[in-house]
Amino acid sequence: MRTLSYFCWILIGVASLTVPAGGGGCGGGNSPPPSEDRKWQTVETIDGSSQPAGPPSIAFLSGGKALAAWAQGSSTPTPALITRICDPATKLWGSLTIQGNGTANDVVLPRVAADGADRAFVVWRQKNASAEGASNVTIFDNNASHYTPPLRLDTAAEPVLEGPEVASGPGGFTFVAWIQQAALASDHNVWANFFNPALGPGGSWAGAQVLDNLSATAQGIGVGSNGGGSAVAAWVQNGDLYTNRFDLLAGGWQGPEVMEPYAGPAFNPAIVMDEDGNATLVWMQNDGTEQRVRARRFEPATGWQAERLLDPGTDSPGFPIRVASGPDGGAFALWATETAGPSKQLWAARFLPGTGWEVAVRLAAPPAGIVGVAGLALAVSPSGHALAIWSPIDAALNGDTFSYRYVSGEGWGTEVPIEDAGAPTVIGAAAFDFLEDAIAVFQVDPAGAGDIAANRFE
How many other CB atoms are found less than 10 A from the CB of residue 300? Predict the structure, then answer.
């Protein structure tokens, strides 16, 4: 693997730097094969560095390119934001680009979302010397083939504690949400900022706004957007699950709403919104007796619907949930549960418009020795096919990454490994393009070399 000698530039505040392209094919291409003929291809390392890397994120631009982002580096130099673009026409990953905000401090957990104007929004938290730092964004405009200078989205003096998370859509309205410490260190506020494509030439950010009205600890931030001026943020505060909807025509944020009536705490909300403004909210809920997976739907014509219990109640959920929207108002949810012994199971549920939530399906019950789940990813294609990916691990933190494919009209298939790295792997994210191909990005040996690798499903 090549040594990333150009990391020294981060220490003197370089905002953007590219190095020559390289690596093998990322897939893509011309006429896609039938769905049943698609399969995972050869794994390739895409980070080009000997420095450890954090969990990656990925999104497809409307023109078919994929943009992956991750943090990479050690304490010396500190982690920087790395992005790389896969061009389906050449089947190659392009140049590595180093992004920064003019400081030499840690980048944490970048996220990527794409709109319908061939732009990708990369957001990240960047630590400073004394606190957890600030929410930042850079926009890659494929039409102009450049990144905008990194921009800080929050305005408060206190540190950002969780997030930022980002969601976009075809209309170009892009929402970023995060949790930030309040003036009193024991209190947190939920914040959001949004990109309005109609403001000024090329669009502009509207400004950070507080979404909650409590003085309490907050966690589990998530955000969904239809790209056309509707969005919803979800979080847990003081043990209760809240949402706040944004409606451009109604004047903006509508105010926080409690989503569940239970005395026990809520955990790990996941939220998504499709192009028509339908939102799917899935979370873990302690009802005073046990912890279960529950869901609520928002539809523009009727508002929030009654909650629905998704899991079968045989095991306790034990890992954050993933949720993704499909075509025509459909959605999928994915979660892992603890069995009575030291093992895990993987479950999925599908929401079908006009029918509701179908019975949850157990995708995997791993062999003995699996004690945890290091990562989950869920992606849905334009025609409603889905990929569920997970990385179960044993007590020594060793494990592989596997996928399950849902084909419309057929259901879920069997387990397929997506890598043969010979080292522990942790899935970061996966995404479909408009040709029904997909890319998964993941960490290889996260406790050691910490490489970033990719595989194409085509």
Answer: 13
Cβ atoms < 10 Å from Cβ of 356: 12
Task: Assess contact for 360 and 345: CB atoms under 8 A.
Answer: no
Report the C-alpha gap between 350 and 280 in whole angstroms.
11
pLDDT in tens, 446-457: 777 789 999 999
pTM listed for this prediction: 0.91
From residue 296, alpha-carbon distances to 114, 281, 303, 336, 447 in Å are 25, 5, 10, 19, 37
3-state secondary structure 203-264: CEECCCEECCCCCECEEEEEEEECCCCEEEEEEEECCEEEEEEEEHHHCEEEEEEECCCCCC
Rounded distance, CA 435 to CA 32, Å? 6
**Residue for token pair 């997909």:** 438
* CA–CA separation, 406 and 409 (whole Å): 9
Q: Read off φ and ψ for residue 37, nearest 5 degrees.
A: -90, -5
Cα separation, 377 vs 231, whole angstroms: 22
DSSP string covering 101-165: SSS-S-EEEEEEEE-TTSEEEEEEEE--SSSS-EEEEEEEETTTTEEPPPEE----SSPEEEEEE
Nearest-CA neighbor of 399 among 376, 379, 374, 377? Answer: 374
Percentages (nearest 5) of helix, strand, coil residues in the chain = 5, 50, 45
- d(CA 199, CA 456) in angstroms, rounded, equals 37
- Measured in degrees and rounded to the nearest 5, phi and psi for residue 368 equal -55, 145
The SS3 of residue 144 is coil
- Torsion of Cα atoms, 204 then 207 then 212 then 213, to 10°: -150
Classify residue 27 as left (phi > 0), alpha (psi -120 to 50) or beta. left
Residue partners of 284: CB distance under 8 A and separation at least 6: 266, 267, 268, 291, 292, 293, 294, 317, 321, 335
Q: Tell me the one-letter amino acid at 398.
A: N
The Cα–Cα gap between 267 and 302 comes to 26
Q: Using CA atoms, how far apart are residues 140 and 86, in angstroms rounded to an integer?
A: 13
pLDDT over threshold 50, residue 86: yes
Any bridge partners for residue 339, and if so which? none
Per the model's pLDDT, the better-predicted residue between 118 and 28 turns out to be: 118
Tell me which range, 71-85, 304-318, 338-352, 372-386, is most confidently predicted by mean pLDDT. Answer: 372-386
